[in-house]
Amino acid sequence: MGDSSAPNGVIDTSANRSVCWVAPKTLEIQHREVGEISDDEVLLEVITTGICGSDAHVWASNPAKAPPVLGHESAGKIIKVGSKVTDRVVGQRVAIEPGFACMKCEFCIRGQPNVCANLSYCGHTENGTLTRFFKCPPHMTVPLPDSVSFKEAGCIQPLAIAVQLGRRANMRAHQTVAVFGCGPLGLLVMAVARAYGVRKIIAFDVEQSRVDFAVKYNADIGVVSPMNTESVEPLKFATDFMEEVMKKHGLGSGVDLTIEASGAEPCVQMAVLLTKPGGTIMAAGLGKPLTSVPLFQFTAKDLTMKGTVRYTPGCFADAVDLLERKAVDLAPLITSTYPLTKASEAFEAQAARQDIKIVIMNQE
Ligand SMILES: [Zn+2]
Ligand SMILES: [Zn+2]
After folding, report:
1. Three-state SS for 331?
2. Domain definitions of the chain by residue range
3. Of 185, 202, 261, 277, which has the fewest Cβ atoms less than 10 A away?
4. How many angstroms is it from 113 CA to the middle of ligand 2?
5. Cα–Cα distance between 258 and 283 in angstroms, integer?
6. What is the layout of strands, in order, in the sheet containing 200-205?
7. Among all ligands shown, which has an atom nearest to the Cα of 160?
8. pLDDT 10s digits, 151-162
């Protein structure tokens, strides 16, 4: 352990191809110097990186300070350990926790590094992981069992977020759970709900194909939400549709738990109407800054609404555990892979929303 001799330095890290943001919707593969690792860091050969909506957002935007290197959902192999690192070894397979929490602010000290006051994040404020080689402190690496493939491990970060949602929501076996939004996060929350043995899962989306996928994957009931194209008064529109859904699917007075993973305002309103008195709504979709909620019903039904972001300590390990026990299968979600050298095409595809989950092979 901690022996930084032997295999260290065998792999040639001089050609460190990295996916760099140079202008909105314009990427370049550039060489970025890896540099020496410090005594308390590890160096990874990055194998896979999942792409998500937030990457596409950075790609398409014109931030004042764009991190040159994008990417934050990655897994790889440790190829070098610093002399003071005692709990990681060369050759170890790991996933990367991409947040640099300060572990000193009041939120970190309370065990909530996901809302760290000084948080920096790979691919957002720090250089990301869409690179061949990446160095970080060992505690940002999560050991992977051999049974978890690198491809799946490239999607562990969003699964860790789904685990965090399950924690915050107090997901329980006897609950009926509704999920608005059948994108990757919605699908992963359904997978976690299924793994936790919930009674019934109802999936909502405006796209038939996404609903069909959710039903094939983990949902018991799939519902295509209509668009309010005739400008019906929003509360009436949501009320009429939810009454129809509850009657048609025998949901009685509503569901115990609703996960809002779409960010769409009508879904937030429907969530209040669909959740039974005393139930919980988890807000997980990042929609527009101001969303109107039927507060009268929210109050009268004694509902609880919680927000959460990213993941908290142990969520990655729980996600790895779910994969190792085959309680969650990520493979069906990975609909395309691209070599790192074709990252531009991967980001175009991500923006076009044709895929469920795209994974980039960092060494190719
Ligand atoms: Zn992401
Ligand atoms: Zn902090």
Report:
1. helix
2. 17-155+330-361, 160-307
3. 277
4. 6
5. 9
6. 221-224, 200-205, 176-180, 255-260, 275-283, 304-307
7. 1
8. 999 999 999 999
Residue that is written with structure tokens 């493939």 in the block: 149
Strand partners, 94: 76, 143
Q: How far is the CA of 96 from the centre of ligand 2 (A)?
A: 18
Residue 48 CA from chain centroid, whole number: 15
Same fold, 17-155+330-361 and 160-307: no
CATH superfamily of domain region 160-307: NAD(P)-binding Rossmann-like Domain (3.40.50.720)
pLDDT for residue 7 is more than 70: no
- pLDDT, one tens digit per residue, over 69-103 is 999 999 999 999 999 999 999 999 999 999 999 99
| Closest listed ligand to the CA of 118 | 2
The pLDDT of residue 4: 39
Specify the 3-state DSSP secondary structure of 76.
strand
Q: What is the rounded distance in angstroms from the CA atom of residue 53 to the CA atom of residue 55? A: 5
Asked if pLDDT for residue 223 goes beyond 80, the answer is yes
54 alpha carbon – ligand 1 mean position (Å)? 6
Residue type, 349: A
